[in-house]
Amino acid sequence: MSDPTQHPPLPATAAPASVRNLRLAQGVLLLFHTTGFLGMAFSKDPSFYLQFVPLNLLLTAGLLFAFQRDRSPAFWGFCLVVSLVGFFVEVVGVSTGKIFGQYEYGATLGLKWQQTPLIIGLNWLMLTYMTGVLALRLPLPAFLRAVVAALLLVGMDVCLEPVAVRYDFWTWQYDVIPLQNFKGWFLVALILQVYFNRVEFDKRNELVPFVYMLQLLFFFGLSMLL
């Protein structure tokens, strides 16, 4: 039986309009991330740029999912489930310290409920979706692809953590990032990736590699400057 999560490779060429739209989206995202990077890294008042972090996340998500070819009920159901799971995992994590360790969110990520930013579920969705799509390129069994995707997600967190602490995304007890955090991220990511592989929708998105690498370089670059 064929794996329903696998799809034929993209055509070697795309319609000119599609290419233009892709280049436009990449240009907009590059502009926003470059501006944010320079402002956060070199401005005397990075708080001005930090107030746009939720907006940048929403813009990135909007452009990313605009290039999702199959926006069927199955796709939207996947988005809803992953967003809710990601959000409530964080709610439990913040209130108990049992999943990621003892931490609390700052003001940078915006409005909160139960001491957890509302937008954090969207962040889990984007990372799960992007790493899942990237892993689909590998000729591996579904579970091994889920493991690779979870590792890609944890790799993003490794780059993100120093930046998050420095710019009040969240803070850790005793200012120490515990190993438990990365174990928790991997476990949650693996569960979500297994779910990603089981949901049937067209999982091709030309913008995914660019967004993942842009965010990885963004956080890695900032962490190198701290």
UniProtKB/TrEMBL annotation:
Membrane-spanning ranges: 24-42, 48-67, 74-96, 116-136, 143-165, 177-195, 207-225
Whether Transmembrane helix counts among this entry's keywords is yes
Q: Which InterPro entries does the annotation name?
A: CruF-like
Keyword Membrane (UniProt): yes
The record's keywords, sorted A to Z, are: Membrane, Transmembrane, Transmembrane helix
Name used for this protein in its record: Putative membrane protein
What species was this sequence derived from?
A: Hymenobacter mucosus
